[in-house]
Amino acid sequence: MAGIEYEAKALDIDPVKTARLITDAGGTQQGEPRLMRRYVYDTVPAIPGRWVRLRDTGAGITLCVKQISTDAIDGTHETEVTVDSFEEANALLGLVGLTPRSYQENRRTSYTLGSVRLELDEWPRIPPYLEIEADNEAEVWDAAAALGIDRDRLTSINTTKVYGLYGIDLDSIADLRFE
Fold it and tell me: Can you tell me where the transmembrane regions are (predicted)?
């Protein structure tokens, strides 16, 4: 599957309060909170803003190439396929010369509000954030408004840049796990 991601983040949120805002607005939780793990690889040749991600969401495993052209709400393009095994896909990528530059974990609790996907993400070393993802820009803004989140509180920067806001160089961390 290929396409543009329409998403924005509300940083430094209280997960309990935000979960309540979502359900009060009519949103529903999609399963239990889960640990997600991923390997991140450079493309060949390495190009800034583009990388390969192998991710186990706890509900499925995907392999994708992400390309960030801008920090705008529609600035990320993703091409993604489903794979059967996290370990075997990593081994296969190794056979074609891709070695992970990092291993990363986060915890995610997923919600939907209509057709909008809401992710409460917790990452090691930084405060939690809410990711709002939809099929178009208007749906992202509408969901934020339904939750009482002002547009000026939202950002579309990627996780590497979020870490940078807290003085952490994510690219220099080869193994990012919960302690």
Answer: none
- What is the distance between the alpha carbons of residues 169 and 28, in angstroms, rounded to a whole number? 34
CA count, 13 A, side-chain hemisphere, 69: 9
Q: What's this model's pTM, rounded to 2 decimal places?
A: 0.93
Contact partners, residue 131, CB within 8 Å, separation at least 6: 7, 8, 9, 118, 119, 121
The beta strand positions in 85-179, using DSSP E, are 102-113, 116-122, 129-134, 154-155, 175-176
Query: What are the residue boundaries of the structural domains of the chain, listed by start?
Result: 2-171
Domain covering 2-171, topology: Hypothetical Protein Pfu-838710-001 (2.40.320)
Q: What is the pLDDT of residues 84-134, one digit of tens each?
A: 999 999 999 999 999 999 999 999 999 999 999 999 999 999 999 999 999
Radius of gyration of the chain (CA): 16
CA distance 164 to 142: 28
Q: Strand, coil or helix: what is 72?
A: coil
Q: Please, where are the H alpha helices in the chain?
A: 15-24, 86-95, 137-146, 159-165
Inform me whether the pLDDT recorded for 1 exceeds 70. no
